[in-house]
Design a protein that fits this description.
The chain has helices at 2-16, 30-34, 146-152; strands at residues 21-29, 48-59, 63-74, 80-91, 99-112, 115-129, 134-144, 158-169. It is of the alpha+beta class and 171 residues long.
Length: 171
């Protein structure tokens, strides 16, 4: 219940801040969707969906800050869920038209096998604006997979994922 409350709090806080726009994104892990994971015996087309909202703050000279509540679900042997809230900055006044680069950092909670652990994460996203409402995006994500420490006794818990998907602007 606490992760749900964290997301609700982030949405309420974000909605109450002055905003330039609100968008939603949906990304799929590229490796799991194309080649799978031979080390852990996951076939291609394994679902690892990363969804969220980007609550855009005031536009300035180079871009805008944003608040990003998100949820990730991976259809693994023990389903993986991560609720998170990131703060970031999007550079949307770059040298190349229609190209945006975003960096964010955040805090979240991972739930696996009915147990939870705290984690932090970082995202770097590159987006291409197809039109005023739709973007194609690629997201590099680093997450401290604290669940791996207690579940499998792994020492190296900082993991990389590469996602691709779309972002739709609503406001």
């Amino acid at each position: 219940m606490k992760p749900f409350l964290l997301i609700v709090f982030a949405l309420i806080t974000g909605i109450s801040l002055p905003q330039e726009g609100v968008s939603f994104f949906a990304f799929q892990d590229v490796r799991l969707s194309t080649v799978g994971d031979n080390d852990h015996h996951y076939e291609p087309f394994t679902l690892d969906l990363y969804v969220g909202a980007k609550l855009q703050l005031k536009q300035d000279r180079y871009g805008y800050g944003y608040l990003q509540p998100s949820f990730e679900y991976a259809d693994l042997k023990s389903p993986y869920k991560r609720y998170a809230v990131n703060l970031g900055y999007c550079f949307n006044s770059l040298l190349i038209d229609h190209l945006e680069a975003s960096l964010s950092a955040g805090y979240g909670k991972i739930i696996v096998k009915s147990a939870s652990s705290k984690s932090y994460g970082f995202d770097a996203t590159l987006s291409y604006k197809l039109n005023a409402k739709l973007k194609l995006s690629s997201c590099a994500q680093f997450v401290d997979r604290t669940d791996l420490a207690w579940q499998w006794k792994e020492a190296d818990t900082l993991k990389f994922s590469w996602f691709a998907g779309i972002e739709i602007k609503l406001k």
